Amino acid sequence: MLLKRRASAKHVAMGGVLLALCVVLVYLSSLAPSGKIALLALASFLTGILLLETGPGFAATYCLAASALLLVLVQNKIAVVPYIFFFSGYGIVKYYLEKRRPDGAPAVSRWMEYLLKYLMFHGALGISLLFGIFITAGGLETVKTAWNSLPAGLPRAGAILVLELAFLAYDFAYSVFMDFYQRRIRRRISL
Q: In 55-109, where does DSSP find H-type helix?
């Protein structure tokens, strides 16, 4: 019982430290003139660390706590929307989609895994866009202005393709970071 309580206290302490770091990264992304997505991606890696150390239940609680805390602390709510609807929970979705069955076989096929990831990405993108429309003072006009400000040589479908390629790069970077954490960092820290 005492050992379980110690592990639980360590999980809570780690969650608190990672939550504070997450708030700092998302807050910086709301202030930064560029590199916003990179800071949000770094903040999302923290969910993956917590997922590895504590499991999906604690990581999901962390995502909810981070989202609530960010809504309270970060003044620029638009900067928080992508984190809440996509980046915070992506690690948990990725965990379940890439999880292996006891016999070592993947839980879902690689094709189905990427289809579901892209559905999540596009769903989160759509929800973020709708939420952004309702939250901004300009509403739909602000979104139209941003869409129309894309470079003239870039077709609108090209913009979506660029976002999908960026998502693919993010998914790969997430995997590389989690592998690096497991192989190099995790064994050097005592939890």
A: 56-73, 77-82, 88-98
Which residue type sits at 96? Y
Domain ranges of the chain: 2-188
CA quadruple 101, 105, 108, 113: dihedral, nearest 10: 110
Strands (E), 98-159: none
In which band, very low, low, confident or very high, does the pLDDT at 3 lie, cut at 50, 70 and 90?
Answer: very low
Tell me the two tokens of residue 149: 């400000």
pTM of the model: 0.82
Q: Is 74 helix (H, G, I), strand (E, B) or coil?
A: coil
Q: Distance between CA 12 and CA 23 in Å, rounded?
A: 16
Are 84 and 129 a contacting pair, CB within 8 Å? no
| Full 3-state SS string of 18-32 | HHHHHHHHHHHHHHC
